[in-house]
Specification:
This protein is of the alpha+beta class and 286 residues long. It has 12 helices and 9 strands. Strands 1, 2, 5, 6, 7, 8 and 9 form a 7-stranded mixed beta sheet that branches. Strand 1 and strand 2 form a beta hairpin.
Amino acid sequence: MVITGMGVVAPNGHGLDELEKALREGRSGIRHVAELTELNFACQVGGIPQGFDAVRQRYFDHEKLLSINDNIGYASVAAVDAWRDAGFSVPEAEDDRVDWDTGVIAGCGIGGMDTIARTVVPQVNAGNVRRMGSRIVEQVMNSGTSARIAGLLALGNQATSNSSACSTGNEAVIEAAERIRRGLAVRMLAGGSEGASPYIWAGFDAMRVICRKFNDRPEEASRPMSETAAGFVPGAGGALLLLEELGAARERGAKIYAEFLGGMVNCGGHRMGGSITAPNPEGVKR
């Protein structure tokens, strides 16, 4: 099993070339977020993809844009990029053929909270339910991410959106690999995304687990493993890989980035020092 395509929408770059350049130059994607200051957040920095409205308008027509919020948009753009990177073309909407050999597992931690907070709740409270339109469900259900990708690329195999907090994307890749390994799919798109919304980040700010000491130096806020680490930084974006059975990849002459050897998921049961946020050390070893 190998990786033959990659796509990414990140706070410091859209696409492999732009992201690689940003990484090599040490260019941070963490910036001051004015909205968080206005809302009196203790943490006022975050990582949000820049200029994404213009990006998605290059990918989708007006009708599709009606049901694509940021979370689904990040995942969809990354999926299309990974698909093209692997040497495939995006089918026309009028093309009735289905790719039964390919599926997608693309998840998120929380999903369309921005749509719920800015559209659903105000419209419902104002008694304007009928004004929300028929596309609202697609944007707020967690499965909307993989459903949209499957529709864009005519993928007829498994289409699932998983949700396992910070391990969502990792788990998606492992589950996709297992489906190929069992012979149930030839290739699978797999990864994760999350939208940018103060309604997602507010709870973490209240818990005091996101960084509040570097509002004046955003690019220094993310300090994993550092003695001066002061919490994680909220962010948004999406990334997907295309996993493919080796024989199929070789047969079509695909470029191969890497071989997937294996992975494992467990929980630890919130015991032995573990919790919903802290790993059980024994679970990690197992």
